[in-house]
Fold these 2 entries.
Entry 1:
Amino acid sequence: MRFAAGVDVGSTQTKAAIVEQNAGPVAFAIVDTGASVTRAAENAFNVACREASLQPADVGFVVGTGYGRYKIAFGNAQMTEISCHARGAHALFPNTRTVIDMGGQDSKAISVDDNGHVLDFVMNDKCAAGTGRFLANAAEVLGLGLAEFGALSAKATHPVKITTVCTVFVESDILSYLALGKKPEDIVRGVHLAIAKRTVSLARRVPLEPSVTLTGGVSRNEGMVAALEEVLGVPLQVSPQAHFAGALGAALHALDRVDASFESGVWRTAV
Amino acid sequence: MVDWYQKLAESAETGTPPAASMMVSGACVELTQAFDVLPLYPEVNALQLAIRRQSLEPILAAEEFGYASDNCAYVKADIGAYFKGITPTGSPLPKPALVLCNFVGCNTYVKWFEHVSVIMEAPLYVLDVPFLRAGEPSADAIAYVVRQLKELVVKLEEITGKQLDMDKLREAVWCSSQVEEYWSKIKHLARRSPSPFDAYFDAITLMGPLYVHRATREGVAFFKQALEELELKAELDREAGVRERFRLVFEGPPPYPHFRAFRDMFAKWNACAVASTYSTVGGLWEFGARHDPDNPFESIALHMIEHNVTNRNMQQRNEQIKRYVEEWDADGVIIHFVKSCRLFSAGQGDMREYFSRTLGVPTLYVESDLADPRYFSTAQLQTRVDAYFEALEMHKSARTSAHVG
């Protein structure tokens, strides 16, 4: 057996994926990142190993990705989340030509070729506008959980116009609309549309060609998916594993590097 | 550069020789040299503060004084340093005898020099240089600048109490032409593989001497030696089999407050800049233009209008980069957008699309600032740079496979 793993250390959550040669993904795991990036990476990897009924030493190669990639003590190599999301999205949907990844603190658009290789990419600049953090802040102001926040969007009848995409100033926009007696669902929908417009505008800076695949933690927000589809004017491909696309891509890059001479424990010395 | 700062300190203490504040872009340093007037570049002071990690304090001082957070960080570093009594080397800088705004393509520069003139209580002369909107400058544009240069001669005669010595002016112009020849040859050494130097990060260390000593015999000797040393290094690198992994063209000034960190992001991938537009801010000579001692005024005017990158239009800048990519055999283009410089950075989004989409040249666009350290995010920039090289590596290997296949 040949196994490889990818660990994606994001700002909010850390994801791990294990893939088997000629068989595809065999396990996924997710833990909160918290204060220790190194520990979160270890935890996610160990949970994935247990899920796959493997010992850590059975995994031939580990690629770390995400903002904490250089802090993964047991990783054999590091790759950026851009290369990994491209590869992961291509594995989930081989017809992918554009990837929109919305994570906790950044959002990016990636143009990929028919092998899942990156052709071009753009990312948000040094600002959390248009990211998961923005949505989390907005949900908090409304006193909603993230799951509720996403679902509530569908009930909107007259979405409000949110004029800021600043994570800090959106709070005063929301409070103003609440003071005006606007319904929470209309405010939520307005927030989703504001972010969708910003994200699509970012994505248009790469050739925004179909098929478009959404990855990252925000892909679990159904309100965001609907708003993006409305602004884009095309359906999005969203996999149940979209949240793990970075880890999956990292695992597939790791699998490329699993040498034929692999023996248990050769590649990795400590977990 | 140490020598220049020493001379500026002497000027500050004794008033001799007098100094003139000038802009790097299209500087008419040949004319000031003919009068033994020292060039004093506020931009160089600002970047020297930034690369020494001393720019934030004066920037904050300028903001306290009322400059907006998105004003040019060079302006704020320079003006704030004056308020705080900070100089790059710690030695004093002279009060300029003349504030010469010799480049007006950036309207911020005009305001900057107006402020310098008021703060320093020094006379201001604004030399209006027509922007090069298309093709070559018209005869009228050249005559317009020449007439102003001759007005400037009168100002310099008043300040120094000397008459213009045409032989001395021709000598200064001749020195510039020689320096330009050597500098051009140095730039062309980077067409070799491996390039013996980095035409962005290393070129920056040669740009200061170019602005300060261009019109002097010392400048000629310096650049002659630099060329000889780099030719020797090129030969030694070739014999040693040194190879760069990626050859790049850079657009835009560097993030001076994080110069080393930014350089290391590219060095980690064994990438080498083979050309850069920033190194042509003070003069664009690798395509053949030179100062002409037989036509000193006209050639100074041409330099100011045409032969520096900042006074050229966007299409010409794109064409310049395209020539670098083709003739210097580059793998890709890096664009560094400067947050506090709207004028030079405007259009770089279109430039990115032109290279990446129209020409198919892998292009990376990153943002920070040239003097304000607060705009630099190491983790975000590192991710963009790493992702660019990961993609470039796949692009190169796919191209190689296709070629072999």
Entry 2:
Amino acid sequence: MNKTQQILFDEPGPRARRRIRIATVLGAVLLAGALVAAVYQFASHGELAAARWEPFTTWPIWRYLLNGLWATLRAAAATAVLSSALGLLLALGRLSTHRPLRWLAGAYVEIFRTVPTLLLIYVTLFALPQYGMNFPLFWKLVVPLVVSNSAAFAEIFRSGILALDRGQTEAGLAIGLRRGQVMALVVLPQALLQLAPSLVSQLVGLLKDTSLGFVVSYTELLYSGQVLSSYTHLLIQTFLVVALIYLVVNASLSKFARVLQARNNRGTRTR
Amino acid sequence: MDALTAHLSEFGHGLVTTVELTVVTTVGAMLLGIVVATLRIAPVPLLRAIGTAYVEVFQNLPLLALLVLFVFALPTIGITFPLFTSAAIVIAVYEGAYLAEAIRAGINTVGVGQAEAARAIGLTFGQSLRHVILPQGLRAVIQPIGNICIALLMNTSLAAAVGVVELTQAANNVNLVEAQPIAVFTGAGLAYMLLALIIGQVTGLLERRLAIVR
């Protein structure tokens, strides 16, 4: 039990314990009611029949969906590498002592932080081909994702660099390092360590963004589900399974981010 | 430029739909966020578990997957809503998870003494939450909530992928007719930036008016 939970109520006495029991029973009844209603809806439309779920115990169906997941992970990996690299450059640009560079990087970040990714996807799908830039399908998804995610990464990097104690930079300069050296040898290694959890959380967001492959018709996980369901007509089953796969992958990543965060918190306390 | 002026009404309709969708879902998501944040700090373990599960599920599923599930798959078990309503429900539920986390972070900033004082004068859990904790907690996270609202604005564009003709889709439709992508998409992008700017300004105003300087 953490701090928040403790501040709002004391150790329960007999009456409070009774009330907690009543609320537990009520909550359980409501939850069970919702579950029964859901099962009833499924059953009354024949979606609970064994034949409509059986395909999901067969390997070919899973192979197809796992191929989709593989494509999702590939797109996510490419986006992550490119947009974190670009994001780091943008963050350094925004913090540079060179005014035009600062202004340019700032404009890029402010613009692409407030333009929807889908709009960028439409641009790569419908506008760029007119100007002779017709990317392969994979890049039609990855390029817009990189453009918008790099702005998000830039903000994460910048906040991490700014959050670091100024004394670190000053000490670096005092022992005669150049600005670039201070950044590379002193500031970045420490900032990146502190930022690791936020970067992993951003990975979850980025992985979710790859579901826009649905619009590009790049067969990542969600679009694979769409293709599969148009063959099998098992709409709700397919999309529930797809959602479950997303949930497992992303929840593991989120868990990893929390572990990193906990490790960082421990680190700062002992220091 | 002609492409923009000749199709002002289409752009206008798209813009209005985007604004409507943003306003409706912001209100819905805010209410859901408060409820879920309350569940997560309730004295009842089962309710806490429900709140945690809600946040965990909706922060880890892609919004587009939820939209597709809700709009295309739920009708097969007899659950159908008008398209706009479906999109609004899904986006509100999705963003509700993010707002719940932001609000919980706000509640965490309220001093332990405040909660203890509230209990000492005999307020119940609900009363101390309503009169003491939430008013202070919410004021501490106005900026993060504003950022989530901007993210929500951008996420309303995903409703286009399931057929809602909002700003992004309107731009796309106009471009299909006019084939002037640069003017059309730049116009739409500028409109989004303007809306985000307005949200940012309102957030800043609220922050200056309401934030507690400690």
